[in-house]
Hints:
Layout: H1 2-20, E1 33-36, H2 41-45, H3 53-60, E2 65-66, E3 73-81, E4 88-97, E5 103-108, H4 147-155
Antiparallel strand pairs: 1-3, 2-3, 3-4, 4-5
Amino acid sequence: MISSRLSIAALAIFLLGACSSVPRIVTEYRIDVQQGNVLTQDMVSQLRPGLTRDQVRFVLGTPLLVDMFHANRWDYLYRLQSGRTGEVELRRFTVLFDGEGKLDRVEGDVVAELSGEAAAPDVKSRVLDLGAIDGDAPMPPPEEKGFFGRVLEKVGL
């Protein structure tokens, strides 16, 4: 009787001990968790002193933190946690405005380009000044129709 109780207790301890360590033969997939505003060096290099709040919001996006007690300060935060390794990447960027609402200075992990070193714009990016378009300017001519456009026109569609 005592040996059966002892063997049951030993078996229970052995089974409970086996549950404490799980062999990692097959691991579960964990996604990368990205939070906040993604700021690239290209975006920050477009900032110039004297830009308005709307222009800064157009370039960088909506700030993550706007404090009602510090209305002249916008904070952009970015956090990326790798699902595979668990490493965390943090970036902090602060935009400070003067009393008139113009960009005064920036602080943070991503640095702004110096005003003397103007880089050529990327081929991918295109800047349009909508205020310079005249309302009475003639519209550009329509593009010539392609093969399918001409066939559909002959059919009557």
